[in-house]
Amino acid sequence: GRAGGGEIRALRRAFNRLTARLREREDALIETMQKYQLITENSTDLITKHTSDGTIVYASPVSSSILGIRPEDLLGHSLCEFVHPDDFSTVRTAVAEAAQSKSLATIMYRARRADQHYLWLETTLQRMKNAAGEETQRILCISRDVSDRKRMEERLHELARTDHLTALPNRFLLDERFAGGLAQARREGSLLAMLM
User: Fold this and answer.
1) Alpha helix ranges (H) inside the chain
2) Tens of pLDDT, residue by residue, the chain (196 residues)
3) What are the b/e assignments for 151-176, b being 16+ CB within 10 Å?
4) Please, which residues bridge with residue 49 across strands?
5) What is this structure's pTM?
6) Which of 74, 89, 95, 143 could tie 46 with a disulfide, CB 3.0–4.6 Å?
């Protein structure tokens, strides 16, 4: 009787220790999941997860404010469906490269909002790893609206090429246009004339 009771107590203690460790791991997992959920749901950047062909399988809630599209309405669609036609090849190439490599790529492109207007996005693409640290076929994209920055760059580009008092083209713009015309004339094997 005594030996059997001792074995049962030992088994009970072992079971209680295992249960306690399991609860600790479960609590740690829940805490980690809550941290990631807090980050993705409160980020001002659009966080999306894609299959290797670019199909969206997760979109953070901020998609509603950036694209005007609810996250659940993005699921199953390709990233390329929302890309400006002139930027399509850039995005398609970046997705393909991200699916094949371990490197981090950052691209800028125009994306179409629900209201059919385009905004500039800067997106970083990277192949995801699983919990064991192994590469997966999923691609993580973190996108930021850089439309204001792009407008400022374009405005600075214009200001650098015009006289600020008269708004007339300046010497810098003349040099650019002359160099472009000269390069085109050489490619075409034609002559170039300039009137001043």
Assistant:
1) 2-42, 63-66, 71-74, 88-100, 147-160, 171-188
2) 566 678 888 888 888 898 888 888 887 777 766 667 666 676 789 999 999 888 999 999 999 999 999 999 999 999 889 999 999 999 999 988 888 877 788 999 999 999 999 999 999 999 988 877 788 889 999 999 999 999 998 888 888 888 878 878 888 778 888 888 889 889 999 887 877 7
3) eeeeeeeeeebeeeeeeeeeeeeeee
4) 58, 140
5) 0.66
6) 143
